[in-house]
Amino acid sequence: MAKIKAIRGMNDILPDQTPVWQYLERTVKNVLSAYGYSEVRMPVVEQTSLFKRSIGEVTDIVEKEMYTFDDRNGESLTLRPEGTASCVRAAEEHGLLFNQMQRFWYQGPMFRYERPQKGRYRQFHQVGVETFGMPNADIDAEVIMLSARLWKQLGLLDSVTLQLNTLGSNEARADYKQALVEYLSARKDQLDEDSQRRLETNPLRILDSKDQNTQALLDDAPVLTDYLDEESRQHFSELTQMLDDAGVQYEINPRLVRGLDYYCKTVFEWVTDKLGAQGTVCAGGRYDGLVKQLGGRPTPAVGFAMGVERLILLLETLDLIPQAVKQPFDLYLAAEHKGLQSKVVLYADRLRDRFEGLRVQIHCGGQKNIRQKAQQTGAPIVLLLKETDNQELCGTVWYNGEPIFDLEEGQVQDKIASIWQA
Ligand code: HAM
């Protein structure tokens, strides 16, 4: 019988990979906690209408990429394709938004029916940040600086570029949209097929087109910057000033519009050229209209989400994962002779009692080539226990491959203490 396999584009994360995920998650959590963000955990399934109303009916995500199904009651549900809509829904439902300032983060799987390729999956993971109740550019600067701090801690700062743009108010964008449609409609036959369709449905997305002819046509098209309202202009200039003061480098990209409908004013993406086509590792912006659109009171908001798989790919490509991260234990403990195994089990626990945080793994199985096997585990500390003629425990400790022979039991622990505390 044919074996059942995982769904295309949905990956198992195996034990050789989980330490890297945990390393990334740990680093992200430390940064988020340094900024006072609180974690929110939302369900992975929501009513379909939540995503239609927030992401937009005529976006790629809603038109083509959602995993939508009817449950047994005939209610239309969708596996979340992103976290912002769910986070707004949860915060509004539990009264966390009105007249409050909030800084939230979440992590977990998201689902999009896209064509799988390197860096693009059907189940992928995001860590997202959403802030509410703060209308000024200071919080836009904060979320961008927070992400920059994370890149710095991961050693990625030189490998990613911040692309920045402002979409202006809804009114400014509507005026611009009209001008763009007029310009492009007169040249419709020169547009690529996708852009011709978008001209009717979502014209701003044409700015994102990868087609060279379309991009050339856009060189002479009206630019959004010329249509910006004064408030958005001011907001953007305050933001860029703060980023300048903080030493965060950016490129202003007037064609950056993002693929979700809820944005206004600031939008940004962190991109890398080291991952091929799927080079955006983190993206977000301001969405002041979304809470109201979903039935709440007007609430300014700004956030971003990063793609965990892409960040891990990038860390691996650049060889930036610290050696120790992949090692699941610090000390490997085995017995030199048969008959000592019960002592090994107990001794391992004594070590765990005495050295808080020391990760000890014991050898279970045959004694053949035991020294060699213990060393092959790659553990920085290896301890082989044996007994003296008087049946007292003693042992040999290896530290980074260098053996320290014939230690009495007390000396063994002292040696481990000196290594562990160093
Ligand atoms: P997004 O640009 O759709 O924005 O996704 C954010 C990030 O998730 C992307 O930059 C990318 O790193 C990762 N990502 C997206 N799709 C895939 C995929 N199929 N496979 C692997 N990684 C992927 C949002 O989701 C917004 N909710 C971000 C946001 C939060 N804006 C404001 N707050």
Mean pLDDT: 95
Q: What order do the strands of the largest sheet run in, or round the barrel if closed?
A: 1-5-6-11-10-9-7-8
Shape annotation: elongated
Helix percentage: 25-40%
The N- and C-terminal alpha carbons lie at a distance of 55 Å
N to C succession of SSEs? HEEHHEEHEEHEHHHHEEEHEHEHEHEEEH
- Binned strand content: 15-25%
Number of strands: 16
- Could you say which structural class the secondary elements and strand pairing correspond to? alpha+beta
Small ligands present: histidyl-adenosine monophosphate
Please give the largest β-sheet: 8 strands, mixed
Could you explain the architecture of this structure?
This protein is α+β, with helices and mostly antiparallel strands and 422 residues long. A hairpin with a 5-residue loop joins strand 3 and strand 4 (76-79). It is 37% helix and 22% strand. Helix 1 (18-34) packs antiparallel against helix 5 (137-154) and helix 5 packs parallel to helix 9. The N and C termini lie far apart (55 Å). The strands form three sheets. The chain has an eight-stranded mixed sheet. It has a five-stranded mixed sheet with strand order 13-12-14-15-16, with helices on both faces. Histidyl-adenosine monophosphate (HAM) is lined by residues 82-84, 112, 114, 120-121, 124, 126, 128, 130, 260, 280-285, 287, 303-307, 309-310.
